[in-house]
Amino acid sequence: MLTNSEAEVLIERKGSGLWITLNKPGTMNALTQDMLAGLKKALKSAAADLTLRTVVLTGRGKGFCVGADLADFNERAKAGKMLGFRSELDSNFHPVINGLRSLPQLVINRINGTCAGAGLAIGLAGDIKYAVKGTGFVGAFIKVGLAPDCGSSYLFAKALGYSKALELFLSRGKVAAEELAAFGLINRVFETSEAMDREIAELSTYVETLPPLALTLTKKTLRLAQEAPAFEAALTNEAAIQDYLGQTKDHAEGISAFLEKRKPVFTGN
């Protein structure tokens, strides 16, 4: 566990959950190369820990994450250490996005403040997204001469449709959590951070009662369905996953517990 307050990514184990906190409150958790490296390491470690049931990602201070730290990038560019944009995305940003989306545990994004740029995509990459009322989501890439990246074009075009997504990225720039909740990009909006934390604690406790493998593959089934080119492809994916789960001990235990009217004991097998 990292306890050094200077570390850019803090890791804390809470029972069967792991809390990952972006720790640069002075810059609203802008992403430096070191922070991205810390995130990649934390996600890789979490993916291999079968004792974890939930992963909570949040930010320290008033912002969740405002995207790339432009000062850090500028310093690296001056020192000749800046990769091309494609390489920067492929090497540093995409592994974080894909790491969040592919974790076997339930990923809960505790969005405590502003999300902008790449932070917008990271904020929406979790399985469950909670935010406090009035939290701003900013997609102002064009104001620095860039287009949406880190999967934000995909997420917003899917949820809002082409025209609404274009409006956001070209002119509106900022939307509140309440509006994104109406489009399904945020699960719930809370009046206070305390109320949000109570919900996270309750959800985490509930997840502990679920069969781990079935949870992981339910996530995978829905991800594949979202990205399937046609309904028939979703049927094929569902059948393959269900065939696998139907042979697990947890499935047999679930059936037995149902018939015997008792609480199931799942082992992840």
Features:
single chain, alpha/beta, Lyase 2-enoyl-coa Hydratase, Chain  A, domain 2, 2 domains, 6-stranded mixed sheet, 4-stranded mixed sheet
Description:
This protein is α/β, with parallel strands linked by helices. It has 2 domains: 199 residues, 2-enoyl-CoA Hydratase, Chain A, domain 1, CATH 3.90.226; 49 residues, Orthogonal Bundle (Lyase 2-enoyl-coa Hydratase, Chain  A, domain 2), CATH 1.10.12. Helix content is 49%, strand content 16%. The protein has 11 helices and 10 strands. The strands form 2 sheets. Strands 1-2-3-5-7-10 form a 6-stranded mixed β-sheet, with helices on both faces. Strand 1 and strand 2 form a beta hairpin. Helix 5 crosses helix 6. The radius of gyration is 20 Å and the shape is globular. It starts with 8 loop residues before the first strand and ends in a 9-residue tail after the last helix.
Q: Give the proportion of residues in helices.
A: 40-55%
Number of strands: 10
Order of helices and strands: EEHEEHHEEHEEHHEHEHHHH
The CATH class of the largest domain, by name, is Alpha Beta
Low-confidence stretches: none
Strand content: 15-25%
What is the count of DSSP helices, taking H or I runs of 4+ residues? Answer: 11
Specify the biggest β-sheet. Answer: 6 strands, mixed
CATH domain fold name of the largest domain? 2-enoyl-CoA Hydratase, Chain A, domain 1
Total domain modules: 2
Radius of gyration: 20 Å
Q: Report how far apart the termini are.
A: 28 Å
What's the shape? globular
Please state the average pLDDT score.
90
CATH architecture of the largest domain: Alpha-Beta Complex
